[in-house]
Amino acid sequence: MDNVYLLIFYGVVLLLILVASFLLFYIRNQNMVWKQKRQLQETQIAQQKELLNAVIDSQEIERKRIGQDLHDEIGGTLSAIKLMLNSLKKQVPEAHTETLTDAKELIDKMIVDVRNISHDLSPPGLSVFGLIPTVEAFVTLINNTGQIKIMLSQVGEVDAIQLPEKTALALFRVITQLVDNTIKHAEATSIAIDFNLAENFQIHYKDNGKGFDPDVLNQRGGIGMQNIQSRLQMVNATYQITTANGKGFELAIQLEIPPSEAL
Asked: What's the confidence (pLDDT) of residue 1?
């Protein structure tokens, strides 16, 4: 009888060992599967980021080429036409001088428009003067149109930041896209852009427009917002969007600045 109990005891112990071994094997296998899935996701994210960087880099190269062509070819041609009109003005009857003057003024406007478009496509001062002066020049241009009022403010030695050109260009594109979105869709009268150098580099954008339902952005963000989010992800910036119907739009951006760049 004792042998039967002993056999039962050993059987139970063996069964427990088998169950424990199976559980350990299952947990280990699940951990390996989870680790492989995480590595696959990280690889996919890295590949998507590399693809996004390549796409944006190619876009910027093409923008720069088109901007230079506009400035050099179209701008040069318009300037030549202007000189020809000035020369022709001395030879035509006085009755036609008013027409030539109107044509010259139209050429002047076209030259300015081409210059502005070429600068927007390829900001010439970004690599020389940095992000803040380039944004200031852009804001001055927008304010001069009278369409909307943009106010800039700075806290800390923001001008001392030496951002990599690629990062500065991405942030400049984000700001110009935000302004474009506000002008086109927000029905706003003012925009505030604040640069703050606290622990990290922060940009706060706010308009007083009609805003929108944030759920709509989460479900189907427009191309403009997708470009903004993609560029911010490209430079590893964190951001937070705050908006609601009738409450305007805000975007807070935070970018870690290595000590060597915050001189």
From this structure: 60
Q: What is the pTM of this model?
A: 0.65
Q: List, in order, residues 6 or more apart from 58 with CB less than 8 Å away.
A: none
DSSP tag of 198: S
pLDDT at 209: 92
Cα 36 to Cα 29, 30, 31, 45, 245: the distances in Å are 10, 10, 8, 14, 43
How many whole angstroms separate alpha carbon 117 and alpha carbon 49? 29
Taking 3-state DSSP, the helix, strand and coil percentages for the chain, each rounded to the nearest 5, stand at 70, 15, 20
Task: Enumerate the domain spans of the chain.
Answer: 1-122, 128-263
How many other CB atoms sit within 10 Å of the CB of residue 187? Answer: 12
* Average pLDDT for 82-100: 72
Q: Which of 169, 164, 167 is nearest to 126 (CA)?
A: 169
Tell me the CATH class for 128-263. alpha beta
Cα first-last separation, the chain: 87
Q: Tokens 């241009």 — which residue? A: 141
Which residue from 147, 143, 71 is spatially nearest to 113, judged by alpha carbons?
Answer: 71
Residue among 50, 43, 52 nearest 226 (CA): 52
CB atoms within 10 A of CB 8: 10
- Residue 82 neighbours by CB under 8 Å, 6+ apart: 104, 107, 108, 111
Q: If we measure between CA atoms, which residue out of 131, 154, 152, 153 comes closest to residue 143?
A: 152
* Residue range 191-215, pLDDT digits in tens: 999 999 877 899 999 999 998 887 7
CA distances from 93 to 81, 83, 84, 97, 100 (A): 19, 18, 16, 7, 11
